[in-house]
Design goal:
six-stranded antiparallel β-sheet, Transferase(Phosphotransferase), domain 1, 9 helices, three-stranded antiparallel β-sheet, globular, alpha+beta, 2 domains
């Protein structure tokens, strides 16, 4: 080579625009990444909470999440671009998804007494299954299965972009064969209403835990309510361990084939669930396309435009703004 590329040092210039969401481990911001010759790209930046940056196990989990998802390149998984450490803080630079969490869609529709149309509910679940199938089947550079298990599939961790494409996000508590640090240690990880019984009981989990969780998401889309209602986390975990499911919440006219898919995905015994996310996804796709025509991302986009028109304007609620926005330079 004519130059030693090993000595090239790149700089990332980020301008934080607004806070998108905050969770137990971090905060996600919308930002603009700028480069040479006026290059700009809208991105999302996940920042580990400053107090957690002082605790090595949390820092290691954050780093491992970035490394794990960096190689998961799929249209139904939010892409990670870069891991940044600066000023004692840690950031993950990732794909910006212009749209909304599935949880927001469910909340708005529930408030107005509506539900996602059945064919679109199944379409969304089928696309999530595609992303999970891809993640579950990944191997490392030496051909060994990574054994990725998301462990936190729920409406909050599924984003729907304005083009009608569902995307899985937040692999923060995911398991993988090459991931050394987790927060298990006898503690329950995940969200109560969407947990499989084995996850709630802190038993060993595998890809079938994600299948169960996706079944709970589909249940909520079809019924308008979670599979189980609890007032405390303790109660939610106890109900999950007992595989409590409010089957009566489903519409009385739900087709038998769709009910059969749900019952298989939500089976208490994981051996009775779908053999893989791929098989689950194909069952969902057959259900909506067996007549020869079914929903596409364009169909979902048309639905979003009709029901959530504000997604397609430039207006943002004042509460989402960060106030006086300063240019922040992060150098790596």
């Amino acid at each position: 080579m004519s130059e030693d590329l090993g000595k090239v040092r790149l700089h990332t210039n980020l301008r934080f625009i607004r806070e998108i969401a905050a969770g137990a481990m971090g905060t996600v911001f919308e930002a603009e990444d700028s480069g040479a010759e006026g290059f700009t790209k809208r991105v999302a930046v996940k920042r580990l909470h400053p107090e957690l940056s002082k605790k090595r196990p949390f820092v290691e989990m954050f780093i491992q999440e970035a490394k794990l998802v960096a190689d998961l390149v799929h249209e139904n998984i939010v892409q990670i671009y870069q891991l940044i450490s600066a000023g004692g803080k840690h950031y993950i630079l990732m794909e910006y998804v212009h749209g909304m969490p599935l949880s927001h869609m469910c909340r708005v529709l529930n408030a107005t007494g509506q539900r996602v149309p059945n064919n679109l509910a199944i379409f969304i679940a089928a696309r999530i299954a595609r992303g999970l199938s891809y993640a579950h089947s990944r191997r490392d550079n030496e051909g060994r299965p990574l054994q990725v298990v998301h462990r936190d599939i729920c409406p909050h961790n599924v984003l729907i972009n304005t083009e009608g494409q569902p995307k899985i996000t937040d692999f923060g508590i995911a398991l993988a064969a090459n991931r050394a640090t987790t927060l298990d240690d006898g503690a329950v990880c995940g969200k109560g209403p969407y947990m499989s019984p084995e996850q709630a009981a802190v038993r060993e989990v595998d890809f079938r835990t994600d299948i169960f969780a996706l079944g709970t998401v589909l249940f909520q889309l079809l019924s308008g309510t979670p599979v189980r209602q609890a007032t405390t986390m303790t109660q939610a975990i106890a109900m999950a361990r007992a595989t409590v499911i409010d089957w009566d919440a489903l519409p009385a006219d739900l087709p038998d084939d769709q009910m059969a898919i749900l019952r298989r995905a939500l089976a208490a015994d994981r051996n009775d669930r779908f053999e893989s996310a791929d098989v689950f996804g194909k069952a969902l796709e057959y259900e909506i396309y067996k007549g020869g025509y079914g929903p596409t991302i364009q169909t979902l986009e048309e639905y979003l435009r009709a029901e959530f028109p504000y997604l397609y304007t430039n207006e943002r609620p004042i509460s989402e703004r960060l106030g006086e926005i300063e240019r922040t330079l992060i150098t790596t």
